[in-house]
Specification:
The complex is a heterodimer of chains A (115) and B (504). Chain A has 115 residues and is mainly α. Helix content of chain A is 63%, strand content 0%. Chain B has helices at residues 7-21, 26-54, 76-99, 102-106, 109-125, 129-148, 153-184, 189-196, 202-220, 228-232, 238-263, 268-292, 296-317, 320-351, 362-365, 367-381, 387-401, 405-431, 442-445, 453-472, 475-489, 491-503; strands at residues 57-60, 71-74. By secondary structure, chain B is mostly helical. Classes of the chains: A mainly alpha (115), B mainly alpha (504).
Chain lengths: 115, 504
């Protein structure tokens, strides 16, 4: 499972960077969304995947029996997803407002502050 | 168990929530802003006092002992940074009572200011890498919103670049955190330092180090990753620019200091060599960018970048003296840089522009303001007897000791070019007469009284006095920097403080 996930993460990062390098701000945000998902999946894969062993403590026992999945990465990724959700919602509103102000979907039209 | 270290984080969070609850009452929000940031300053000073006398202060959230729970840690570097956060928060809060447009206050200037400070303080005081990521995001989201309050075209354009590159940095950071967890199974910084030293995959550890370096390098505005900074920092209202200029990039620098003294010290010859090259290029590109520009805020924004170079140089040389210089430089720079932005705000108030060709006559009509500009400006360039001279002296002396002549030369050259930029501002804005095309000079000449000026002068004068004080009486800050450099070079102190408390 891990090699498959690794390839998937790689494809997602590549797609994200490709989209971010496009000139359209909508594609830029799609790139950001892909990027945050890719990072979360990378975290998920790198932290180790255990199949079919939820970290549950059987009744009467003090701790989980045998090898179980690590619940901490899930908790961390959940936090990261929520944060990314908030930030990306902001980014969507931002590009909408930027489009209204600049009247263009083209990053090449937004160079006033660079020079 | 010590609640003290949590107060600088909890207080602004709470104030942000309360400010939001009273969003209809601007006067209440302003008072909460000024008094609240004042209380933040007091609490950070108290924290520094405790850390100085009793050593590293540690708090385990919910009493989950390290390395299992989230830990807040204040060592000397963290506490110094927290105090600087308090000073900057207080100064800009007082200043922005006069300068923030009313519409911005209605749209949440004050709550966002508190949340920004909470994020910054949290980043300085956390002892957990994932928690650091969370505080980075708190800080970033607040800064995104502060950056675009007002909705002008330049703000939108700047914000797109700022948001994109900072998100990219955060995602690289998050990926690095994930790989770290996969490698050592812990995210507590002290525990990571212990366990990463035992990992026998030096290649992988170096890759991780590079990921952290790129991520924090973007946040710090280091070469070649700084392009978001000059594109966005001059767009928001001046009080916000000043706060960003003082604090936000320094969070990145702090993270570099933390990670590359505590965790990644296995391959100093490789990682710190890269940092040294980055430091040199950061200095020179920043100062050349500033020489090109004729808009005060853009000149100052580029100077942030060049100054970041000196701080990274202190870290990269990685000797006791260099780290002392680096810590000293951070403290000096935060105070001076914010002050320069605040002075630029006063000039704007009087003449209605930040363009040097629209400014003039400031020294003739307001000699006192000239003095208040000269102190931070000459300090930034590194003239004695101001704080910048001592900061530069220590860093450069550390370079001389290491016989790194290249970086010493670049640092000296950058100091000279900084002086050029500052004299450019001085000559155009202060010495020249008022340009003929300027219509309204009533505030400048004092014909029309501007009651807000007092609230602007007070923080500027306070920060200028602090600069002068550090310059003339450097011993206390030097001793602080020396002790914190000692802690940085001996991570065992930090590790023991965090982990032993957990073992009890």
């Amino acid at each position: 499972m891990e090699p498959l996930m690794a390839v998937l993460v790689g494809i997602m990062f590549a797609a994200a960077i490709y989209m971010m390098l496009r000139r359209s701000i909508v594609k830029l945000v799609i790139g950001l969304i892909l990027l945050s998902n890719a990072a979360n999946l990378l975290f998920f894969t790198a932290a180790g995947m255990t199949r079919g062993a939820p970290p549950l403590i059987p009744e009467g026992a003090d701790g989980p029996v045998g090898a179980v999945g690590d619940p901490l990465p899930m908790a961390l990724i959940l936090t990261a997803i929520v944060i990314a959700f908030g930030v990306l919602a902001f980014a969507l509103v931002l590009i909408n407002k930027a489009y209204q102000v600049v009247q263009a979907d083209d990053l090449d039209q937004m160079k006033d502050t660079d020079t | 168990m010590s609640l003290q270290v949590a107060i600088p984080v909890l207080l602004p969070l709470l104030l942000g929530a309360v400010s939001l609850a009273v969003h209809r009452h601007l006067t209440v929000q302003r008072w909460l802003g000024v008094l609240g940031t004042g209380a933040l300053l007091a609490s950070t000073l108290w924290l520094l006092h405790t850390v100085w006398h009793e050593g590293v202060v540690v708090m385990h959230m919910g009493d989950w002992k390290a390395p299992f729970g989230i830990t807040l840690v204040a060592d000397l570097l963290g506490a110094i940074m927290a105090v600087l956060t308090g000073i900057m928060g207080f100064a800009t809060a007082v200043y922005s009572t006069a300068t923030t447009p009313r519409g911005h206050e209605h749209y949440g200037h004050w709550p966002l200011l508190h949340l920004l400070l909470a994020g910054v303080a949290g980043a300085f005081l956390t002892g957990d890498v994932f928690n650091l990521y969370v505080w980075f995001e708190v800080m970033l989201v607040a800064s995104f919103a502060l950056l675009i309050l007002g909705g002008e075209r330049a703000q939108m354009e700047g914000a797109i670049k700022y948001v994109t590159l900072n998100l990219l940095s955060s995602m690289i950071f998050l990926s690095a955190v994930g790989i770290t967890y996969g490698l050592v199974g812990t995210l507590n910084m002290a525990d990571m330092a212990v366990k990463l030293a035992e990992v026998d995959q030096p290649g992988l550890v170096t890759v991780l180090a590079a990921m952290y370096m790129v991520s924090f390098g973007i946040k710090a505005g280091a070469f070649p990753l700084f392009f978001w900074l000059p594109a966005s920092y001059h767009t928001p209202p001046i009080a916000i620019s000043a706060l960003f200029a003082g604090l936000l990039t320094k969070v990145g620098v702090y993270a570099l200091y933390r990670v590359f003294t505590l965790i990644f010290t296995q391959d100093v010859g490789y990682t710190h060599e890269i940092l040294l090259w980055a430091a040199g290029f950061t200095m020179i590109t920043g100062v050349l960018g500033a020489a090109y520009h004729y808009e005060v805020r853009r000149i100052l924004s580029f100077h942030i970048i060049s100054q970041i170079g000196y701080m990274i140089m202190g870290l990269a040389l990685f000797t006791p003296l260099a780290l002392i210089g680096g810590v000293f430089y951070i403290a000096h720079h935060i105070i001076v840089k914010t002050n320069l932005f605040l002075v630029a705000g006063v000039a704007y108030r009087m003449l209605g522009s930040y363009e040097l060709r629209d400014l003039g006559g400031l020294y003739k009509h307001r000699p006192f303001l000239g003095l208040l500009f000269a102190v931070p400006a000459l300090s930034l360039a590194g003239l004695p007897p101001l704080s910048g001279f001592i900061a530069k002296l220590i860093v450069i002396w550390a370079g001389v000791e290491q016989a790194s002549w290249g970086i010493v030369f670049v640092a000296l050259l950058t100091g000279l070019l900084t002086l050029y930029s500052m004299t450019k501002i001085w000559q155009e804005a202060f010495w020249h007469g008022v340009p003929e095309h300027v219509q309204d000079t009533s505030v400048l000449t004092g014909e029309r009284r501007d009651p807000g000026l007092w609230a602007m002068y007070l923080p500027i004068a306070g920060l200028a006095l602090l600069t002068l004080f550090i310059g003339l009486y450097a011993q206390p800050l030097y001793e602080l920097a020396e002790a914190s450099a000692k802690q940085l070079l001996d991570p065992q102190v930090y590790i023991d403080a965090v982990l032993e408390e957990g073992a009890q």
